[in-house]
Amino acid sequence: MTDIIYNLEGGTYLNITNKCPCNCAFCIRSKGDAVGSAKKLWFDEEPGFEEIKKAIDEYDFSKVESAVFCGYGEPTNALDNLIKTAKYLKQINPDIKLRINTNGLSDLINGKPTAKEICDNIDIISVSLNMPDSEQFDKITRNIYPGKAFDAMLRFTKECVEQGNEVHMSVVDVIGEENIEKSRKICEKLGAKFICRSYSRGR
User: CB of 1 within 8 A of CB of 28?
Assistant: First the structure.
């Protein structure tokens, strides 16, 4: 049975979809069928909200301080379920802090502006910057929107910052020091917090 909720290094994570418009060269899901406490993160069939709700009800969220939407897919590929799930978690535990780890391509995926709706329901937005320019971004993410994805990701991030939410942008430490520093400057210009993640740790 596929895990919808799992734990990793003390954190609580929600795996709500396997769909993603990217096939990143360094994606952790290419390394195995699961991470953390999960046995399996690949769905045989995409979950509906009732299935997600059932998993939440079977897990004690009353004392969970924070939870992250980050599984083996891009959470905004299941935007309706993402918003419904976030609202349900806030009903159960109004003090819970919710974060989404996203590729920032939600507007392209859903064909509409999505920053406000996401920021209205998610406290912290963590966007994978990946690379500091469009050409390298397309090459490393292998996304289905070449030539459009990088600018869309930056625009989405900027709009999230404008909503007043806590916004992070991240890169993985294997992209080289020069690209890391260029990425840091982009992040600072947008007003987001810069994070360099460890590839070897998978975070």
Answer: no
